[in-house]
Amino acid sequence: MKVSDFDYPLDESLIAQTPILKRDESRLMVLNRKTGEIEHKKFYDIIDYLNPGDALVLNDTKVIPARLIGEKEETKATIEVLLLKDLGEDTWITLAKPAKRIKLGTIVSFGGGLLKAKCIKIEDDGIRHFKLIYEGILLEILDKLGSMPLPPYIHEKLADKDRYQTVYAKNIGSAAAPTAGLHFTKELLKKIEDKGVKVLFITLHVGLGTFRPVMVEDIKDHEMHSEYYSMSESVANALNETRKNGHKIIAVGTTSTRTLETIASKYQEFKSSSGTTNIFIYPGYDFKGIDALITNFHLPKSTLVMLVSAFSKKEYILNAYKIAQEEKYRFFSFGDAMFIK
To answer: Mean of the pLDDT values across residues 241-249?
Structure first.
């Protein structure tokens, strides 16, 4: 199976540069994954597709303002550092630009020295390990100096950085937002709960994989980077009960999907657990954890297009993307949504 099989022509004017004014008024394409049939709705109509006893599973990770612009202490050259993964003891895996300027021992200063970063390890593809040097509380410093790590296809400045967080974001640790969840409002979630749907939260901290394109031609040769996940005992029990009673599990986003599938594959049921996952889902995968999926419209040739193609059919997904462009849907992180049922 080739990466090029998951390519599609994209009208770049449809890439959403800013979030819609009201989160739940984005458009919603509903795709029947077995027939390819399509309906056009608004996101707040999602409640009509959820039934009492179903479980809606959301990723409550919180994005840190992880993009920092600083300068090399010795040359004053501008350096951009994206914090990707906290290794503990103030050591972080980062993506640095331009990475060739960062050698072992290089110190980058941010905010006039409020925060400094010393390079302690060099890896390929712009990856650098930094030891952070500061006084006080790191998250308060990042709130002051950092900005939201918006994807490279977004060129507009984000007026309100909370719009790159879900309304239920709680557990700090992501380098990118789980964007399928951006469509939900607290009011919509309350209506869904009032209908008798279980609203459940798991955590997956979105990391390097989000920023890395697939560089191989045979998708089986692609290596996913690992990301931290966790599921509580109460959520595991609620999901097992949902399954036992014949109701549906609806994943909000590919990150929730990967967490649910990781746990269901490992234990053949849902179980309280945490760890790292590098699960790579592409056509031929046998889904064990989810029955429906809420997601956005994804980049050509991405692992996310492969995942949704595995859940439906590649032909149905690519046809849906073609129709979405004809109907002027908005694409990617701040774009419209798709419900695959």
So the answer is: 98
Q: Which two tokens stand for residue 237?
A: 């029990």
Percentage of the chain surpassing pLDDT 90? 92
3-class secondary structure per residue, the chain: CEHHHHCCCCCHHHECCCCCCCHHHCEEEEECCCCCCEEEEEHHHHHHHCCCCCEEEEECEEECCCEEEEEECCCCCEEEEEEEEEEECCEEEEEEECHHHCCCCCEEEEHHHCEEEEEEEECCCCEEEEEEEECCCHHHHHHHHCECCCCCCCCCCCCCHHHHCCCCCCEEEECCCCHHHHHCCHHHHHHHHHCCCEEEEEEECCCHHHHCCCCCCEHHHCCCCCEEEEECHHHHHHHHHHHHCCCCEEEEHHHHHHHHHHHHHHHCCCCCEEEEECCCCCCCCCCCCCCEEEEECCCCCCHHHHHHHHHCCHHHHHHHHHHHHHCCCCECCCCCEEEEC
Mean per-residue pLDDT of the chain: 96
What type of residue sits at position 294?
I
Query: According to the model, what pLDDT value does residue 291 have?
Result: 98
Within 10 A of 126 (CB to CB), how many other CB atoms are there? 16
- In Å, how far are 83, 252, 257, 270, 284 from 265, measured between CA atoms? 30, 19, 12, 9, 15
Given a cut of 90, whether residue 152 has pLDDT beyond it is no
Q: Which domains does the chain have, with CATH numbers?
A: 3-63+160-340 (3.40.1780.10), 67-145 (2.40.10.240)
Q: Is the peptide bond before 19 cis (omega within 30 degrees of 0)?
A: no
Task: State the pLDDT at residue 213.
Answer: 76
pTM of this structure: 0.93
Residue with tokens 């950092």: 146
Q: Which pLDDT does position 211 carry in this prediction?
A: 60
> What backbone torsions phi and psi does residue 50 show, to the nearest 5 degrees?
-110, 135
In contact, 59 and 70? CB cutoff 8 Å: no
Assigned token pair, 43: 């996101």
Length of the chain: 341
pLDDT at 208 over 80: no
